[in-house]
Amino acid sequence: MNASPDIVCLGEPMAEFCREGGAESLTYRLGVGGDTSNAAIAAARQGASVGYVTALGQDRFGDRIVQLWADEGVDASAVVRSPDAPTGLYIIDPDPAERHFTYFRAGSAASRFSDADLPRDYLASASVLHVTGITLAVSERLREAALAAMDLVRASGGDVSYDTNLRLKLWDLATARSETERAARRATVLVTSIEDAEDLFALSDPSEICSHVATLGPRIVVVTRGAEGALLCVDGQIGEIAPATADPVDSTGAGDSFTGAFLAWWRETGDPWLAAGRAAIVAAGTVSGLGAIEPIPRRDAVLAREMSRTA
Description:
Strand order of the largest sheet: 6-4-1-10-11-12-13-14-15
Distance between the termini: 45 Å
Shape: globular
Radius of gyration: 18 Å
Order of helices and strands: EEEHEEHEEEEHEHHEHEHHEEEHHH
C-alpha cells in the first residue's frame, strides 16, 4: 500500500443513473456520485494529495468509480473490493422543481465496511480525515468504522473534518442528533448548513450555531448559507465569508465541493479564512454547471478568479 495522502475521505461512493430527456424518457446517463467522493475530487482539483477509504463491489460500477478517481488523482490503494457485495447505486429523476432520488444501497459493499477493514497505517499518517453525516447514516457498521477512524487519526496527530450533510431518509432525527454530537466531539473542522443546523441543533442564527458547535470541540466551524455565503468561526473569532458570483444552474454537490476545496486550501496555506474564500469560488463554479463533478473549478481557475475579485 502506498504512503497515505494528506487528505483522506471515508464514505460511500455510488454509481449514478440520471434520466435524460422528458418525463417519459427511458434514457439514463451513467455517472458517479457520493458526497465524500465529490469532496475528494474537489480537493484534488485544488492540487491536494487525496485518498479514499471505502469498500466497493468487484463489479463494473466499482471499476468505473476507481477509474474516475485515477483520472482525478485520488488514491484508491486502500479501497476494499468485495466479491460478495455490490457497489451501491442510485437513480435521479429530474423535474423543474427538484431532483427525485431512488437509492439501491442496502447490503452494499460500503454498508458492510467495518472497523476490521480500516487501513490503520494509511489513516495514521494522514493529515486530515473527512467524513460526513451520510457516512454515519449508511449503516451501523460503517458508522462505527468511521468513528474509530476519527479516533485513530486524532490520536496520531491528524485532524478530522465532519460535514453534517443531514439526510433524514437514511436515519431518524434523534439518532442523527446523537451521532452528530459524537462526531463533533472528534472533529477539528465541522461544516453545516442553516437547514441542517435547524434540525440538528434547533438553531437558525448562524452566530449561535457557530458558538454552540464550538462548545462541542471543533475549533473551526463553517455555516454555509447558499447564495448568502458562509459564516466562519475560528477559535471563537466569527466572520462573514462573502459568496462568489454565480450563474446557478444545478446545486448538486455545491456543499461537497466547498468542503473539499476548503480542506485543500487550509492544508496548503494554514489560513482558514483564505481557504473559505477560495472554497466559495469553487462552490459558485460548481452551481454554475450541470452535475456534481464536471463543473468543479480547478486550481488555476480559482486563483485567477480570486485575483480578478481583488484587482
